[in-house]
Amino acid sequence: xxxxxxxxxxxxxxxxxxxxxxxxxxxxxxxxxxxxxxxxxxxxxxxxxxxxxxxxxxxxxxxxxxxxxxxxxxxxxxxxxxxxxxxxxxxxxxxxxxxxxxxxxxxxxxxxxxxxxxxxxxxxxxxxxxxxxxxxxxxxxxxxxxxxxxxxxxxxxxxxxxxxxxxxxxxxxxxxxxxxxxxxxxxxxxxxxxxxxxxxxxxxxxxxxxxxxxxxxxxxxxxxxxxxxxxxxxxxxxxxxxxxxxxxxxxxxxxxxxxxxxxxxxxxxxxxxxxxxxxxxxxxxxxxxxxxx
Length: 293
Prior knowledge:
Elements: H1 9-14, H2 16-20, E1 30-35, E2 49-54, H3 72-81, E3 98-103, H4 113-125, E4 134-139, H5 148-159, E5 164-167, E6 191-196, E7 212-217, E8 221-224, E9 230-233, H6 236-256, H7 263-272, E10 274-275, E11 278-279, E12 282-283, E13 289-290
Parallel strand pairs: 1-3, 1-4, 2-3, 4-5, 5-6, 6-7
Antiparallel strand pairs: 8-9, 10-13, 11-12
Helix pairs in contact: 3-6, 4-5, 6-7
């Protein structure tokens, strides 16, 4: 048995298994995860982390220790690239992608904008042992206030042809006609992700605004957690890594055809891999619900 034999509800919902059937698994695509760190000893994440850095004061500020001591970053990383393990049947969207673990949130899930900005710049400049580059940045967090320096960092990443995938936020009021903003999600340059349930219905908690580009599963998502465990979380933090994993699959696909796409072209290709979402009195902003075919 391998990862092609594993079909979790969220995997089926976004059609990732269709790519797996074509042997498209996100091979060696590096996704930078700006979060609470990663537990790289988890059976589903062993060997998936290519490097990392600590931007917090945890571990006495030792920059070399990026181990997750909260759980959020490990859960996000498992959604992106959890690999098949004989211990369980949980597999991420792009099970052969790699994670650059940048710890910008401490054990309490608290961080600052300065660390977030530094981690974005680090992602742009990072080179792996074989000169690998970051090809996607996942940010499953945000702040309520616009910060010009954060915006400039995001624009620099996009100019470097790195898609920046961000969670829309969980401050929604259940009314899709109202707007709620979280940054960097609300910046036009990023790929902002809202959450839907298993029926592709927009959740009551997801932020909604005119900048949301795509919706992805964010309800009762099973993924990796600390100490080899699994846990179920809901939120736009879970929706965003589905899209980051999908981009890793799409990059693997075009690379196998010896095609190189810039950030704008990757976004256009991502939009083609969606289902339309229309409600009775409102056409949903953005591309629709993620669905890989």
